[in-house]
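User: Just a sanity check before I run the rest of the batch. Below are the structure tokens for the first item. I only need the designed sequence back.
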């Protein structure tokens, strides 16, 4: 009986030890599960953020000359080194400055009122509160590129300019006779005179269907669309599907417009061949100009193109740049 009493505490101790071991093992398993859950959540969050940043539009100021544009209380400019600079102000006091690198990969933000150290981000760490301003800068760069010639071709009838914006690039063909063809987006705008071209360019529109038949009011003009063409009653301009003009097929339009379409195709073919030839070079040869204007012709009287200011800083308000909205603002945040 004494031996049984002596063994009882020992067995009790062993039982308690086993119970504690089981508790520790269970705690370890639970902790490992929590760590795995946290890791999965962090990974998913990282993927979401990466996916969100992938939606940021590209920025590329290669070959773009310096230019400034004021929008309300903000100034946006492309500098000589290719950086895009956005400056926000309240009254005469500059409050914040955002600088974006030439390829859009490095963004530096600095609050000036109150003064704070500059913060530098890359395209994957830029805080979401700066997305609107980044997108605004990308839109501005895109518009400037759409007015900056990459290839210029002088034919016997016209000056053809292929612009720097992403494909399909804008094309501006100015005929020495005063007629003009502008390819922008999915539309081709043909105008019988330079004055009509200016009006039509300001009110350009795209056909939703090549065989659409409708009546629609646009600004101060009445548009009539039929058989893939649209005619502006007040200017005489004709708007066609760009694909139709570039395809080489028959186009239903007035005779004067047919001659413009025919020469437009010649210009596009010459420019495509020249670009293919120059793109094989290891040296950046763009902007590239070829051909020769006839001695008897005169260049149409038009305003200077954006980005073609002869090395001087151009001002967007003095050019044909399409209107930009106001620079987006975000609530003030302090950097930590």
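Assistant: Here's the designed sequence for the first item:
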């Amino acid at each position: 009986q004494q031996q049984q009493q002596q063994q009882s505490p020992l067995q009790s101790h062993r039982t308690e030890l086993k119970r504690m071991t089981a508790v520790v093992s269970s705690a370890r398993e639970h902790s490992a599960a929590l760590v795995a859950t946290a890791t999965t959540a962090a990974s998913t969050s990282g993927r979401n953020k990466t996916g969100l940043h992938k939606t940021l539009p590209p920025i590329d100021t290669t070959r773009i000359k310096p230019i400034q544009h004021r929008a309300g209380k903000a100034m946006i400019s492309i500098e000589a080194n290719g950086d895009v600079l956005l400056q926000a102000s309240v009254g005469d006091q500059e409050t914040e400055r955002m600088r974006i690198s030439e390829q859009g990969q490095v963004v530096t933000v600095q609050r000036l009122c109150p003064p704070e150290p500059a913060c530098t981000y890359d395209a994957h760490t830029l805080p979401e509160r700066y997305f609107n301003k980044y997108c605004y800068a990308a839109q501005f760069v895109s518009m400037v590129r759409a007015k900056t010639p990459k290839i210029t071709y002088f034919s016997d009838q016209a000056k053809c300019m292929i612009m720097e914006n992403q494909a399909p690039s804008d094309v501006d063909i100015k005929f020495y006779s005063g007629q003009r063809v502008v390819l922008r987006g999915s539309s081709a705008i043909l105008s019988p005179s330079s004055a009509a071209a200016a009006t039509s360019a300001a009110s350009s529109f795209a056909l939703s269907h090549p065989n659409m038949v409708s009546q629609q009011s646009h600004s101060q003009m009445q548009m009539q669309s039929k058989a893939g063409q649209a005619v502006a009653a007040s200017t005489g301009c004709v708007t066609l599907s760009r694909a139709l003009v570039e395809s080489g097929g028959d186009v239903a339009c007035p005779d004067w417009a047919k001659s413009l379409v025919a020469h437009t195709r010649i210009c596009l073919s010459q420019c495509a061949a020249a670009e293919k030839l120059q793109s094989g070079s290891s040296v950046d040869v763009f902007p590239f100009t070829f051909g020769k204007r006839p001695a008897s012709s005169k260049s149409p009287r038009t305003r200077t193109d954006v980005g073609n200011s002869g090395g001087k800083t151009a001002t967007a308000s003095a050019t044909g740049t399409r209107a930009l909205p106001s620079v987006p603002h975000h609530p003030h945040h302090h950097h930590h």
